[in-house]
């Protein structure tokens, strides 16, 4: 089983099956609880049985990331008699680990979080790096940085994912390759969506871990991980597209702006994204609605909206863009 460290207190374990013991050593721990979702029932049952843990089932996908849903988790936790030395385990996709991480960060002013991602997207992105939160108006507008002590990625589980869930994760892996690993992108050029799972997951986690190690709280370097997300999040909220599908569209917009500013080939990028089966155009959405959602982006500063662009593969830059840039990018996905 491969181990990738993030700082001194967080680790990612990647292998076939789950490690023994499941939880990292913590002498004062007396109990743990599991937060999960309907689609992760089998692995959540395995984890809860090993840990002898109570289980709370969240709604699926973004329905888990609302005031109401998070409030109900707090009400349930109040009945579990946990201490600050106990552990909250998130078993599920990115919405589960986002909520589990946020709840662990805030319940009793902070508890240990451990994540078992059950989707490819969750495994290479949401579960890693300590970002947690839920949606109020825009995407992830309420949140906290709270690094899990351990993330366990079971490649057996990921190899059995439905096609759509695999595609969502591939979008995130392509994003990571574009900002930091040309060799990872070469795997997609050679194999398309059939790129070897173990290698692309391990490479993607290594890149994200390296970036997070440099910048735990997204003050500088870590911002490059947002490539494609500025417009992608807006498309996701406006259309209801799954996160990974919306990210594919968002990367095309960022590529178009990159092509305008630098000698970057957005045609090549569009073809790459399309070759693995991801969308490269927006559904029929209103331009004004999408622009309004982009205006809510957390990366907006007094100078303007900070967006990740590419000078080339592995050469990301974070620059301020204006509405003209955004409109150019949106035109590339069919919104004008």
Question: Could you walk me through the main structural features you see in this protein, from its secondary elements to its overall organization?
Answer:
The chain is of the alpha/beta class. It folds into 2 domains: 2-159, Rossmann fold, CATH 3.40.50; 163-331, Dehydroquinate synthase-like, alpha domain, CATH 1.20.1090. It is 45% helix and 20% strand. It has helices at residues 41-51, 67-78, 94-106, 120-126, 155-159, 163-180, 182-191, 197-214, 229-239, 243-261, 266-275, 287-295, 323-331; strands at 2-6, 10-15, 32-36, 54-57, 87-92, 112-117, 131-136, 138-145, 150-154, 305-312, 315-321. The strands form 3 sheets. Strands 1-2-9-6-5-3-4 form a 7-stranded mixed β-sheet, sandwiched between helices. It has a two-stranded antiparallel ribbon with strand order 7-8. The chain has a two-stranded antiparallel ribbon with strand order 10-11. Helix 10 (243-261) runs antiparallel to helix 11 (266-275). It is globular and about 55 Å long. The N and C termini lie far apart (49 Å). The model has no long low-confidence stretch (mean pLDDT 94).
Care to give the gist of this entry?
By secondary structure, this protein is α/β, with parallel strands linked by helices.
Q: Counting H and I runs of at least 4 residues, what is the number of helices?
A: 13
CA radius of gyration: 19 Å
> What is the overall silhouette?
globular
- In CATH, the architecture of the largest domain is Up-down Bundle
Share of helix, binned:
40-55%
Average pLDDT taken over every residue: 94
* Total strands: 11
